[in-house]
């Protein structure tokens, strides 16, 4: 298997609506910025992998439209795994290069959730049509039922969850691409309307339009392209049960723990708290950052809730989490996972807009499909884990 | 200002429930809830499905479970979304007596105007029983909701 590094990242500004541009025009904006960041041209790219979650954009197979901006005449494929899409697209592009079949591959994900007047009905169409869809369940309610159990089992409080939102919103102020840029207090979060109890409006992500592109290169190419590539140490992904009710305990995210262990084993990580400097996690709802931190070994079970309030997950804390402002402030659903990888890569390149001092190892995560899929990638400023 | 073009998808589908789920829906007409038992891991799976995704084996042993069980979790939806039920409504997971998996279902029979009070009445572990439609039609909506059992 070949060594692979991220050598370029390009993002569009994310907003509820990007009325100025069409689907492929957004793709082009992200691709152009990623190529520019890598200092290469379209001629240098061997293949494209495109990701999006249908049908948020209201166009089926938007890959047809967007491929016009993603390597005309080049090998092209589309990846889609619900909310995980962005990161599985990144994993696919990585595997293209790691296999030795291609030297330079661009992953690009475009999504226009904002053109969708109401995202929950679309999310509801992803729910089982025979037994579950009638319930009206979408993404918010599945996160809410996680929160209910976590609160009752571990005593997690509304204030602790609100702190996650306060922290992400504070971080987003530093990220020029972030969608929601608004300082919030704990009181603002707690007094916002309850959407799906116990989750309140400011504990839920926005609907975002935008695109992100990440350039992957084989080891030799990566060193030619830039001095500070983000080396990919490992990736892992997992699928869990289809029905939410099959999970034995919604207060823990077992499948993420398993995916995390696989990742750590591949990368040689013994203690994620010590070995990983910063995490970009897929947490469109406050409770999920807490569950993810626990599942990935950054906190004991039931103890993740206090980390934001105690400052641990702030950018200057011991375990900075979502310094970009995270999914709570920007959620172009099928592109979101690749934004996590892009931001994690920028952190270890030392080029992030809200840079964690001395970050050498960064984790990117995404979940999708009513809590069903997880994907993880680990990047580093060094080719191997240094302790 | 750019031109905005309105669009709407209204595409009809007819889904097959498959033979397994059809048997489940037939039983609902008699106010019975059926599950299947995995021959390998022995879990009773509700709602029933034709194979155990964990063991990769077919499931053809049918088991009747109770229409009563415990709340595993709940949320109350207060926001209105296109095409989704009118708020407020409570959705949760109920683990029926005799089943090893939980089932997504509406919860009811309690005042939902104050979510904290409602969560207290429907908290994890609360015993609940199905409230059925008077004349079940063999649809998932035959169970209107689960309500707390008066102790």
What features would you describe in this structure?
The complex is a heterodimer of chains A (387) and B (151). Chain A is α/β, with parallel strands linked by helices and 387 residues long. Chain A has 13 helices and 11 strands. Chain A has helices at 23-38, 62-66, 85-98, 119-124, 139-154, 158-172, 186-191, 219-225, 254-267, 272-275, 286-295, 326-329, 333-349, and strands spanning 4-11, 47-51, 76-79, 104-112, 194-196, 199-200, 209-218, 230-239, 278-280, 361-368, 373-380. Chain A starts with a strand and ends in a 7-residue tail after the last strand. Chain B has 151 residues and is mainly beta. Chain B has one domain (18-148). Chain B has helices spanning 18-28, 115-121; strands spanning 33-37, 44-45, 51-52, 57-58, 61-65, 68-77, 89-96, 103-107, 127-132, 143-148. The longest helix of chain B has 11 residues, at 18-28. The A-B interface holds A 19-20, 55, 58, 117-118, 120-121, 124, 129-132, 134-138, 140-141, 144-149, 152-153, 193-199, 241-247, 250 and B 2, 4, 7, 9, 15, 17-18, 21, 45, 47, 53-54, 72-79, 81-85, 89, 91-93, 95, 101-106, 115-116, 118-119, 123-124, 140-141.
Instruction: Give average pLDDT of chain B, whole number.
Output: 96
Number of helical segments with 4 or more residues of chain B: 2
Q: Determine the strand fraction of chain B and express it as a percent band.
A: 25-35%
Main sheet of chain A, how many strands, which sense, barrel? 9 strands, mixed
The tally of strands of chain A reads 11
Q: Report the CATH superfamily of the domain at 4-117 and 207-225 in chain A.
A: Thiolase/Chalcone synthase
CATH class of the domain at 4-117 and 207-225 in chain A: Alpha Beta
Percent of residues of chain A in helical segments? 25-40%
Describe the largest sheet of chain B.
Answer: 5 strands, antiparallel
Multimerization status: heterodimer
Order of helices and strands of chain A: EHEHEHEHHHHEEEHEHHEHHHEE
Helix content of chain B: 10-25%
CATH topology of the domain at 4-117 and 207-225 in chain A: Peroxisomal Thiolase, Chain A, domain 1
Terminal residue distance of chain A: 24 Å
Number of strands of chain B: 10
Strand content range of chain A: 15-25%
Which structural class do the helices and strands of chain B define?
mainly beta
